[in-house]
């Protein structure tokens, strides 16, 4: 029996269905009306927090609690900028602004602030307006533009898998003046992470970037006992340095370890400094290594001529006035002090003159400079007058130095700069001619193993022609002549 037969046989069935439908529709309309009324009342009378809680509870009940979590409590830190009025320090604001500049993506943000990037010469110490810079794409260094957030704009940053929201604001600073600020918002449960890891990460990243982007200077002392500086643009780097690759790698690793050990030095109670003694024959690249270290660390150089300091007091003033993150260089330290031990008898001026090489400069004329005065700065009472300092002594004759200069804690790493080896030559060939192979390479390699020639001599020969064939042929002939002279000399001795 089909449905039409049932309806036809029961006249009251259709009317009952219609009545039931009408009652259901009326009930739904009533519920809807009450819901609209309740929503209006709630919007007018209930606070926002209560409405959010009620909305969450209703959603939780309707969905049976599935896939629902309690709303997380948010926290906001406000980082203000102070305009040098003594009411606060703006360094954290500057660090945060510089950090966010590295996170700006002009392709995903509708509004960004565009500004000119300062060149290195605009401000040597504070240079560091880095970030998204179109000039950097071509290695322009000082050109290009910097992008940053516009006032009122927001951007997200992710650190250790946690999302943070930054907002650029302008607020009243409490003295009826408008002051820029940055608001950092995040889930409150990550408060410890922000204070202990995120903010320190931001400041460390900015400090490292500014250090690597700063313009370098080299300072020398004048007769009045003060420093005079000028721009320093030496092109030497560890990539272009002609020396043994293993030794080069150990120096870089030592410098990296030194930079990261601030808390370590503080914990063991030692001054945060590192000493390097560079020794070897003239022309082996000691000055180039100093330049490479300066370029790698981005530390300014302080070239100390001890003949300009008339007394230990003047020397002390010069050394203690050096800022943090600097490199003290004393070249040819063997010519500055006579090779005596402090417990032994002092040698006469005639004896010292006889022991100096013919081409060495005369010793300093200062009346009161002593080795003890210098050592007092290296690791004595005045060694803690600054932090993150590098001390470099160079000498052609290590055996003539006072033993007090050589012990650990003063010169921590002794670096021998020897004659040109095969690996050093390959670096020079790559620097000058962008080549890693040549038919003359096997012969040159054999000759370098038999004769002593400095990297400076090899460089001079390679500079004589821009044609790689001509230059390498000239170098080969030079090495052959040295080999023949060596054989003649050994034959004469025999």
UniProtKB/TrEMBL annotation:
Spell out the reaction equation it catalyses: ATP + H2O = ADP + phosphate + H(+)
Residue ranges of the region described as Disordered: 346-365
Q: Which UniProt keywords apply?
A: ATP-binding, Magnesium, Nucleotide-binding
> Which GO biological process entries does UniProt record here?
response to stress
List required co-factors: Mg(2+)
SUPFAM superfamilies according to UniProt: P-loop containing nucleoside triphosphate hydrolases
List, as start-end ranges, the regions of compositional bias called Basic and acidic residues. 346-358
| Domain of life (superkingdom) | Eukaryota
InterPro entries for this protein: AAA+_ATPase, AAA_N_dom, At3g28540-like_C, ATPase_AAA_core, ATPase_AAA_CS, Mitochondrial_chaperone_BCS1, P-loop_NTPase
Specify one Pfam family: AAA_assoc
Q: Quick check: keyword Magnesium in the entry?
A: yes
Where is each AAA+ ATPase domain found? 272-421
Tell me, what is one Gene Ontology molecular-function annotation carried by this entry?
A: ATP binding
Q: Could you say which protein family the record assigns here?
A: Belongs to the AAA ATPase family. BCS1 subfamily.
Q: What protein does this entry describe?
A: AAA+ ATPase domain-containing protein
